[in-house]
Predict the 3D structure of the following.
Amino acid sequence: MSTEPAIEESIETAAESVGSVWPLHSFVTANPLAGFEDQPFHEAVADAEQTLGGDGYPSADVFRRAWESGQIDPAILRARLTEHGHDSDPEASLDRMAAAESVDSADAATTAADRVDAVLTKWLAAFFDQGQTEWPMPDREQGFYDAFRSVARYDSDIPERGAIANLPDEPVDAIQDCLAEYPVGDWQDIFEFHLTALPGWTGFLKQRIDDDTVWQSTYPVTLSGYLAVRLTLADQFDAPVTPTESGNERTDDGDRPLQEVWLSAWEASYRSELVDALTDASASLAKTDERTDQNRPDAQLVFCIDTRSEVIRRHIEATGNYETHGYAGFFGVPMRYEGYDADVAVDACPPILDAEHRIADRPTADATDEYDRWHATLDAGKSAVKRLRANAATAFSFVESAGAGYGAALTARTLLPGRVYDLLDTADTRAPDDHECCEPTVDYNPDAVHELREGLTLDEKVEYAATAFELMGWEQFARVVVFTGHASQTANNPFDSSLDCGACAGNPGGPNARVLAAICNDDQVKARLRERGIGVPEDTLFVAGEHNTTTDEVTLYAGDVPETHAADIEQLRADLETARAGATAERVEDMETMADSASRETERRAADWAETRPEWGLAGNAGFVIGPRELTDGLDLDGRSFLHSYDWRTDSDGDALEAIMTGPMVVTQWINTQYYFATVDNRVYGSGSKVTHNPVGNVGVYQGNGGDLMTGLPLQSVMSGDDEPYHQPLRLSTVIHAPVERVTEIIADCTELATLLDNDWLSLTVVDPQRDHQPLHYDGDRNWTPLETAETEPATAPTVADDD
């Protein structure tokens, strides 16, 4: 154990208790309890409470509000209370739950551990700064541990700062020195204790080390280096080194905690309504086949599976002969994208995938010169203002000369955000956009020298296009097919990337849509697709677009449209405006605000720098439907369901369904759990109120002026009031329209997926079109129970078991 490899291995194991945290500028939704997913949910949240100090279930008040509003079916609740050994009277169990909840009345006096945190986070913020400070920390290129040894000796907050310079050259040696008097068998628990003390910073360290970005290679950090510094400071401040018993273990009657029973009943109530509607739709779908040449739609629009797409899709379909589909918002191309004038490239694909292609915008039109002049002028102005404000010699004179103008601008932003939106929109309209003067480098370039291959080969382009249509089960193509990415628009919002496309790692999805549209418009690709049985008509035009989820405006990137399709695009643009009006009216009503024009209200929110809730994001998410659009067509799912198009009839080998279940289904579970935990305990698993946020280093936010990085969503993203959730904290209910045997085989072959399902991190129901559209609920260990009995009598219900 005293050897370096053994210590490093022990540190890695201890770090599994902390979930990864991505930088705020590329916000990635993730389960904050990802390291506990190998345990049943009720055990995991209990362990996490001891380790991280966070509540894992909604409070009694939240359950009571859901019960009184009719969100929980009484029959389901009473059956589950009885089954798990609890009093079947809901009111009595609520009272018991409330009585068991204790108020934390711990002494707020500053402790030695608090002083360790204060010094450590100060140096972490300085080291990890990504361009926010004017004077960066010296010696960062040596790594965090060595930089700390070099600079912290001058920190007057450290009691014996002179000893810092005498630390061993290797962090593992420093760790051994600090723990010399402790049994080696206790070291892993000690590591976990200190790594979970600041889970935000630790999670950020983990993500940075795993991703090995340019920041990590330039300014390296290791977990052992971090622990060496923390243990050294703990010794300096005489802070606790070993974990202490918290003394707040919960006891409960029955085989499951009372909160777990109430939660599962709430989830079953939601799931029952969703599955009932899908079961009826499945039966109706079997009687008709709407996919005929006579019913060829005027246009097909492919949106991200994001819950916000569900609302705009309904309204688009209501405006005309349009068909919409759901597909992962990176459109299946794992790429690193570099905009025409961007400073850095970004990985525009889910974090479970590695980027495989470098795609950069290249100029193609005369508009490039105007674009360059316009943006060069803007950039020069911004740089000049920044220098004047930051330079100590010019800051005061700059304020004197520009103060009135700045004051007027601030007043306009505060009092007239709608007018500000109009000005910005006008400027944006006059300035050439990158998609107007550039096109993505889709073709493979063997001569380009980059970390990733530039562009895609013909075989790769065909494979990405075919995969998209095969996963969605397409057999018919409209004259116009639009791949629609999505992005958000907000002002003064550190969490703006959390509202962009999660499938694109917190980046806008428009570039990905442009890449797939360019691929599919390639004549060679079309010909190869036809050879594979994917009959793309000669008159089909593929177009890219982007859905602004704040304003519900859908922009089509179709500047150079063939004359043959000009009328189609013009009509589609007009109908998209009509759909926008309907969608914004629905969303504004949900925000409980009054406005003469819903579209105008969303524009105000987009431009208002004081708006703490520009949009609801994915709040409310509770379901994931995998099936043909005809299954959900006409259903108002209230923006709560992820929708992935899939047709089991075109997927005889089950490969398409396996890709969806092991990819998007896992990612939606991450999204769902992040919203869940940020709602049930925002202090620990969220980031608190935006009002008191303090951005740090362009990587995260503090609450107040220091401390741990906040790891999750802000209070305003999930709560309509300080103690009233807007997001219903439910685990994800997935419903798949496919033969149950096919789903069972996939679960059997994917250990990670089986673990999530067997441990109740999400639920799974299959509406089987080959079993008279019977809904079957997954009970674990590859067993299924008819849903109508599963919700009320799971212990005695007949099951459909795997033949193996």
Q: What stands out?
A: The radius of gyration is 28 Å.
